Prior knowledge:
alpha+beta
Amino acid sequence: MKFDRNKHVFHSPDFEEIIKDTIRFFNGTPIQIIPASERFQGTGVYAIYCTAKIGVYKDFHDINRTSYDVPIYVGKAVPAGWRQARSANTENSESYELNNRIREHGRSIEQGAGLKLNDYRCRFMILEGAESDLIGTAEAALIRSYKPLWNSLIDGFGNHDPGSGRYEQAMSDWDVCHPGRLWAKKCKGKHNSKKELLKGIGVFISRLKGEHCNG
């Protein structure tokens, strides 16, 4: 049988519009402190924004001072069993996965050298019921759109303790730049140079600031 690739390609303008609508809604959600002032239920997608006036990320203050347009990190919080499709939609709104994930990130920022939690804010979108199937797609769309620094250049912010027996791996770039998480100190593998990573951050932010100011 002759192979015709076109017969295997799915395309839906309706789906594209749904994603655009999802991102528009996300960008219109209120900015919150980290952690949020009230504990809330649900799963979904979130972004973290930096407004530091000093330190390696000081230029983010100018970028985000009038509106929170440029996230430094984007992530998702999915219900237990999501990867195995074992989670029922009714359970999504009853869990605290999104709240807990943002709170966990707040602890990482507090522990990271050179960072102050008060310099960071977040926004998030709760996706429940049938809309919870959009969690991974919405996260990917936001990362493609914004290419956040802690997703693209400096990896490891969202990492968890790898556990006993796996500390032979290298410390993540984020932990090299912002040491402080106790479990990360146990990682003994050869990691990247902090000097080179910080240099890369400077170049990244300078380019970002130029694009934002000229946009």
